[in-house]
User: What shape does this take?
Amino acid sequence: MEKSKGMIETENRQGIEKIDEVADGIYHVIYPDDRKLGLAMIRFAEFYESPHFQGRNFTFQDYARWYLANSQGGQKKGKFTYYDDWPGFNLPSRTLEPFYNGEFDPLRRGELELLDSFRHKRGEKFYIIASSQEATPDLIRHEIAHGLFDMREGYQREVLRVLKEERRSGNPAPDRLRNYLLNMAGGVGYAADKLLDEEQAYLVAYDDILADGLDTPDMRKIHDRLMPIFDRFFITKE
Ligand SMILES: [Zn+2]
Assistant: This one.
């Protein structure tokens, strides 16, 4: 029996609830819960920014085994805590290309659903952020900051200038934040080339940092400098 297009889409469903274009070229994909979100995003995200798997070919099982052995949750509780550890995702559209090309076959159901959702835009430059319905506004703001960093040259230039100036003037907050990011969840989060992007995103969505006790006047000073830049570049799509 030949499958109709509609049937394939049904079989591939991981449960994307909706996709919003939150700003020009930045798409927010929303899943019902953090587990469905993580299951769909894991290989895209970790191909893009894992300190271990970035740029490599790997299966879900390869990743889960490595995460269990190296993450804090795996080491302390023997549990795969990925879905709790990472409730938000970000990736440029170019990350999808090796998945379209068959390099990650067999694809998993959630991966196919995401690829199908953006197939009509293949070859275009755009940005994907993803969260579940459980996401806080601050988390979404963090992911949008990643989108702006990749998609708006002026935004990237201005936030990097602020971080550089603060470091140069002896403000210890950026390096404290960097250290915190390198050790997050046991050091399984970010490849070295993603750290500056993460620094600015965490500084823009400040409450995430406050919750972890990194709030100091020198950290807040950078947040206060970055806020107007974010507000100037984040123009919502209506
Ligand atoms: Zn981030």
Observations:
- The first helix runs from residue 5 to 11.
